[in-house]
Write a structure and sequence with these properties.
mainly alpha; 0% strand
């Protein structure tokens, strides 16, 4: 075998090994995105199960704003539907509606001393608030995983392998503008 042939086969072997390393890295990133989404999904299901209990406790107080409860129930249904369809954009919008509705429930509850004193309501409020914080943390992790994945499949030479094996960009889970405004207001009041 000549030197030229050996160099040629050496180059082919190195290129194949590099392709395998890149492919395995892209697969790892794809699974990191899926894992981050699964973590959010678990928390969304847990919160989904707690919301009807909160609405029911609030409904026991006849004067409680039924419109607010109806908005939370509708937003809960939208979140569930978007989650089942894996529609990240719709989920982000529905999440914004739901979080605003929950904020309204907790704000309106301030006007009902009996409700605020209800032990079950206080437990649900604490549990849902903890779930909201966990969802926000997981959303940040998900978006970071998506960003790393999306950047990697667009960088040369990785994009050659990504296109060859049809790795696609994943959507970010973004806050709705209403939720951003709500978070900005909370930041002002907590400062």
């Amino acid at each position: 075998m000549s030197v030229t042939t050996a160099v040629f086969f050496g180059f082919i072997v190195i290129a194949l090994l590099y392709g395998v390393v890149v492919y395995n890295g892209l697969v790892q990133l794809k699974h990191n995105v899926a894992k981050a989404w699964a973590n959010i999904d678990v928390l969304l299901k847990q919160r989904h199960d707690e919301l009807p209990k909160l609405v029911e406790v609030c409904r026991q107080y006849k004067q409680f704003e039924q419109e607010t409860l109806a908005r939370v129930t509708e937003a809960r249904a939208r979140v569930s539907s978007a989650r089942e369809k894996h529609d990240i954009a719709a989920l982000g919008a529905a999440e914004g509606m739901l979080r605003m509705g929950l904020g309204q429930i907790f704000a309106v509850a301030e006007a009902y001393p009996e409700l605020k004193a209800n032990e079950h309501f206080m437990q649900l409020q604490t549990r849902i608030t903890a779930l909201e914080n966990a969802i926000a943390d997981r959303r940040e992790l998900y978006n970071e995983s998506v960003n790393v994945h999306n950047v990697r499949i667009e960088q040369f030479p990785d994009l050659l392998i990504a296109r060859l094996f049809q790795f696609i960009a994943q959507p970010l889970l973004e806050f709705s503008s209403a939720e951003k405004a709500d978070l900005d207001m909370k930041a002002l009041f907590s400062a």
